[in-house]
From TrEMBL:
Transmembrane segments: none annotated. One of its GO terms (molecular function) is glycerol-3-phosphate dehydrogenase (NADP+) activity. NAD(+) binds at A141, R256. Coiled coil: none annotated. Pfam families: NAD_Gly3P_dh_C, NAD_Gly3P_dh_N. This is Glycerol-3-phosphate dehydrogenase.
Length: 329
């Protein structure tokens, strides 16, 4: 595999393009803003995200023409916020994706039905499971940009697709875990963003390490309950592809979800927090989707409930955490 079309222009997309171009994979990159396109094609720099990263322009062609980018490669990588994915897909002619393989790295449920990104791709474009893959953590874009040792997960039901993708993303600083548990990894990637938000709220409220340890322990238990109820996980969650992603999002200062939650904990409204942040925190939209999923499954998930009541019912974060204190052990 020598060519991949990348859809999305944020920090995570930039980090993935860095890896691909370092591995001499030809990247056709769709971005919405012409200023980004010009800076990337001329200088190999995304001026909006990870601007300290210099990309190899010999393997990069950026464009604001979505259809053109989709036509260039037989493999498409979608790296966009989950809330924007349906509107983006509505502009794409399904015939452009006929026979192509699709990779998603979208960490939130999609659409009014709160489906997984891979399920949305299957429903909207008719892309079978054997033509799909998912990229997940545990990792942050900033550390990939700095070349720090990182582990990443690639999931697909198609082993030959996995083997094709491994050399595209492996490097001296990036190790690849391969999995076939597509849905389990997707749900874990979505849930961890909500955990990051709630951990940030706890920090903003000035809770200490002792409480944080109990909060994260309960989050691990909630994740296990969710995956068991959905019958999607084929593996124990105590491995880096599941648990590692949750931990790095809960504790890392690079976590935009944790930063979002911290502002909420300090008394900011959702609108004020969104205005204060330059990047999208996927946990906000993910909270609504997972709350509905847990409700449909009849699950009691205090951490999800806390996030939902604070973010969507506009309950006072202080009183909700007092309630959470009584509902975790």
């Amino acid at each position: 595999m020598t060519e991949i079309s990348v859809i999305g222009g944020g920090s995570w997309a930039t980090a993935l393009v860095k890896i691909l171009t370092e591995n001499k994979v030809r990247v056709f990159w769709y971005l919405r803003r012409q200023v980004q396109v010009e800076a990337l094609n001329d200088e190999g720099i995304n001026p909006d995200y990870l601007s300290f990263v210099k990309l190899d322009t010999n393997y990069l062609q950026a464009s604001t023409d979505l259809n053109l980018v989709l036509q260039q490669a037989s493999t498409i990588l979608f790296v966009v916020p989950s809330a924007h994915f349906p509107s983006l897909c509505s502009t794409i002619d399904p015939n452009l994706l006929q026979g192509k393989k699709i990779i998603t790295s979208i960490k939130g449920t999609v659409g009014e039905d709160n489906v997984l990104p891979s399920a949305f791709v299957a429903q909207h474009f008719g892309v079978e499971a054997y033509r799909q893959a998912v990229l997940a953590g545990p990792c942050h874009a900033e550390e990939i940009g700095m070349g720090k040792k990182t582990y990443m997960t690639i999931c697909s039901a198609n082993d030959s697709f996995l083997q094709q993708l491994r050399p595209c993303f492996s490097s001296r600083y990036l190790a690849i875990n391969l999995h076939t548990d597509l849905c389990g990894i997707e749900y874990a990637a979505i849930y961890k963003n909500v955990v990051g938000l709630v951990c940030g709220m706890a920090k903003g409220l000035n809770y200490g390490d002792n409480f944080m340890a109990v909060l994260v322990s309960n989050a691990i238990y909630e994740l296990q309950l969710l995956l068991e109820a959905l019958h999607v996980s084929e593996n124990r969650i105590a491995c880096s592809s599941y648990l590692g992603d949750l931990l790095v999002t809960a504790y890392s200062p690079h976590s935009r979800n944790r930063s979002f939650g911290e502002l909420i904990g300090r008394g900011y409204s959702v609108e004020q927090t969104q205005n204060a942040m330059s990047m999208v925190a996927e946990g906000y939209a993910a909270t609504q989707g997972l709350y509905q999923t847990a409700k449909d499954l009849g699950l009691n998930m205090p951490i999800i409930n806390t996030a939902y009541r604070v973010l969507y019912n506009h309950m006072a974060v202080t009183s909700e955490f007092k309630l959470l204190e009584r509902n975790i052990i």
